């Protein structure tokens, strides 16, 4: 398959495939005399493994080391991928439940105490993460463990105020380029802030930015600070992540 076909079927960009080739992570089996990349079925299988690792927020450098390791066992890795994804799904299900309760609380249908607001944010007891760290080392595993923020009423007020300050800063910059130095400085503030209340790898941070635009509920709330802010944040977050993973 040619690079455009691979990009389409895998749901990634041609630029991403070119980057994987450039860093030696995924070299196509053949390059024609005209310079066209031709990918084999084995290349596609390797790409699938890479994307599983990326879904779990492994850095590209570490993925390359794992796939090139003499001890690499594809079946063993697939089993670990499955277990880690199942653990991730369980956490996401719990967080969705927390979010839905929060929405009901916002509408006045139920009351939530401070403990309930953070159910699902504790990633410290992930056994499969421990297994992956033991197998590939700490640097090869996404850092899921977030420091717990205080859950006092004062703590919640401080968080809310800090969040609004950052939104207002971003709203004031939304007519600038998302890649500008000022924009990236405040987006970094947003990334650091979110990791105070949860745990976001750079890849999940990028996905969150996409949700800001794709989910009208997020769009509506964010754009209260300024029309088009959600789109601006998505673009700035993408620039931040792309710079971080180079």
From TrEMBL:
Could you tell me the superkingdom of the organism this chain comes from? Bacteria
InterPro entries documented for this protein: DNA-bd_dom_put_sf, MerR-type_HTH_dom, MerR_fam, TipA-like_antibiotic-bd, TipAS_dom
Alphabetized SUPFAM superfamilies for the sequence: Antibiotic binding domain of TipA-like multidrug resistance regulators (SSF89082), Putative DNA-binding domain (SSF46955)
Q: Which molecular function GO terms apply here?
A: DNA binding; DNA-binding transcription factor activity
**Which intervals of the chain form a coiled coil?**
89-116
Print the keywords alphabetically.
Activator, Coiled coil, DNA-binding, Transcription, Transcription regulation
Q: Which Gene3D superfamilies match?
A: 1.10.1660.10, Antibiotic binding domain of TipA-like multidrug resistance regulators
Any idea where the HTH merR-type domain is?
1-69
Is DNA-binding there in the keyword field?
A: yes
What Pfam families does the record tag this protein with? MerR_1 (PF13411), TipAS (PF07739)
SMART domains in alphabetical order: HTH_MERR
Instruction: Return the protein name.
Output: Transcriptional regulator
Q: Which organism is it from?
A: Paenibacillus pini JCM 16418
